[in-house]
Amino acid sequence: MPSADAVRAAAADSGLDLSALPVHVGIIMDGNGRWARSRGIPRLLGHREGYKTLRSVLLAANDLGVKYLTVYAFSAENWRRPKVEVEGLMKLIERAAIDELRIMFRNNVRVKVAGRLNEVPDGLRRALEKGVETTADNTGITFTLAVNYGGRAEIVDAVNRLMAEGERSVHEDKISAKLYNPDIPEPDLLIRTAGEMRLSNFLLWQGAYAELVVVEKTWPEFNLEDLVEACKSFQSRTRKFGGDAE
Ligand code: FPP
Asked: Quick one: 93 and 172 in the same domain?
């Protein structure tokens, strides 16, 4: 494994401005199924390979100096998949949450989750909650796993919390304050793999002004160089936030 300094030096050599990185990167990790199908192997092996990619991309993002990484591990719509795939994904994420804890510590990663955790199997919920609790004081990258996550559901949950507190009207700041992780800044860059140009209900509220980068490779094929290229593409954009870039 190259050191963080070597990762940063190689990225700078390839033209990345390390002083202007996206602070928060979100990733829709798409194409595990296609990766597996093209090899004639079960879809779950694609997800397992995607897990390996996620580990290396998380550590690479941390090395580069990205402060927040949020990934779509299981969407609120993914329950519609065949039972064997849903159960396999739940088990894979649970195993990962348990097995990776030591690596999260060694790399100073702070783990967060986003989604309706009350609807996921108990074992997975407990593993995720333990990861969040035990890494809460880490000061490196904040890594958020979106599990049973839907952007619309997140907004609905925020509004319902406001109503439960007796609010009679809402405005943007009030909703922002009730999202799953209100302290995490909005994503600057959203990456989607496998060529699809859709948000698929990911970070709908927070991603309002995010720059989008779509990569043709499937998620298991995605690597550090692709992350650096996506960040370079982000740096080439002029962000206007609805106003005038000048
Ligand atoms: C989309 O590919 C991917 C998912 C629905 C799951 C993402 C899960 C992982 C990357 C692995 C496990 C995660 C953790 C946190 C350990 P797809 O199946 O929709 O691909 P397809 O569109 O080619 O069928």
From this structure: no
- pLDDT of 245 > 80? The answer is no
Does 157 fall in a domain?
A: yes
Dist CA 192 CA 165 (whole Å): 36
Report the pLDDT value the prediction gives residue 185, as an integer from 0 to 100: 98
Catalytic member of 78, 107, 138, 223: 78
Atom of ligand 1 nearest to the CA of 145: 15
State the pLDDT at residue 222.
98
Q: Are 61 and 126 part of one and the same domain?
A: yes
pTM: 0.96
Same structural domain, 47 and 142:
yes
Domain housing 60: 17-66+77-106+121-146
Buried-state track 186-217, b at ≥16 Cβ within 10 A, e below 16: bbbbbbbbbeeeebebbbeebbeebbbbbbee
Number of domains in the chain: 2
Contact 25, 66 (CB under 8 A): yes
- 33 alpha carbon – ligand 1 mean position (Å): 7
| Alpha-carbon gap, residue 193 to 166, rounded angstroms | 42
**Domain identity same for 138 and 155:** no
Query: What length is written for the chain?
Result: 246
pLDDT mean across residues, the chain: 97
Residue 219 alpha carbon to ligand 1 centre in Å: 8
Residues 129 and 39 in one domain: yes
Same domain, 46 and 21: yes
Question: Which is the closest atom of ligand 1 to the Cα of 196?
Answer: 22
Can you give the pLDDT at residue 246?
61
